[in-house]
Amino acid sequence: MLSVLMLAACGSKDGSNSSSGSNSGKNSLEAIKEKDKIVFGVKNDTRLFGLKDPKTGNIEGFDIDIAKEITKIILGDESKAEFKEVTSKTRIPMLQKGDIDAIVATMTITEERKKEVDFSDVYFEAGQALLVKKGSPIKSIDNIKKGTKVLAVKGSTSAINIREKAPDATVLEFENYAEAFTALKAGQGDTLTTDNAILYGMVDEDPSYQVVGDIFTDEPYGIAAKKDSPELVKAINDALKEMKDNGKYDEIYKKWIKTSN
To answer: Which of 24, 29, 81, 143 could form a disulfide with 71 if both were Cys (CB 3.0 to 4.6 A apart)?
Structure first.
């Protein structure tokens, strides 16, 4: 019996090593090329950047088209891009667990996040702003006073920034932008704050709201990969440069980004 148990244990160990070692020694880029697809973490609720069409089930937006073009450059075919939904709170854990290969989800590059992930070059410049119902007395960050209810999203830099910029405000956090905007429309808050580009998407959805005031932060978006993935980051950066050089980036930008109220 002891011999049988020893053999079984050895077999289990060998099998485990064989299974987990299928990509042993391969870096993130090599593993992607071996499986011939890139799994991107994207948002499903962010109009203009990543929004799921309820009729088709497809996710559409600026981030999605950027991810497709990166995939086309790296793997030769944009259809080899696969998308999984993430939120501001779940995206880094999903990347670290290996559920996704990269994050393209309106993610601001910060020094704190650099400790957990590797970032590409900046692919979109945004800034934090405020969204209000038209006619609101709130016209800028200066109007956020004690008792003002500000809505934000969990895990976002916006929630941190608003507490620093308006420490007397009451900040209510929601799981995603759709929930936060629904709460604003239901009167649960006085204003909603996040990056201006995301807010423009909400205005596009409901023109009775408007973005007010100047931006009060810089929010450079980057594409995130697992820590210590220099080969993949370089491939993404090379793809971004190619897109900007050949005009594809501008084409995608003009297609999605609307800045008028």
So the answer is: 81
